[in-house]
Amino acid sequence: MMKEKEELKQILVQEFELRELGRLKYLLGIEVAYSNHGIFIYRKIYITDLLVETTKTGCRPVSIPMNPNQKLCKAEEESTVDKKMYQRPVGKLVYWAHTQPDIAHSVSVIS
Questions:
Q1: How confident is the model at residue 37 (pLDDT cuts 50, 70, 90)?
Q2: What domain count does the chain have?
Q3: Containing H/E element for 16?
Q4: At 12, phi and psi to the nearest 5?
């Protein structure tokens, strides 16, 4: 395995400028942990930052994020809402849902 890795690095060095950075720990909001049982990814920092940004740090977890039959509708009374206040957190949730399939349905409904 190490021989193949070194051969691949030599091929890549010929075409690209490379730097050995060691084991991956954090990238694009994804934390990486290594153990004897495998490699694990999690996003605790990412979601904690999102909760802080939206002032929702006091929220409690639920076992089922949303009723799958829940229907949303437009409010009867139009109130002025700053849509930017919702776009950024929803965008972050869409990105988070790529590694959290259990929230994918809820995120697609709100987006």
A1: very high
A2: 1
A3: none
A4: -70, -35
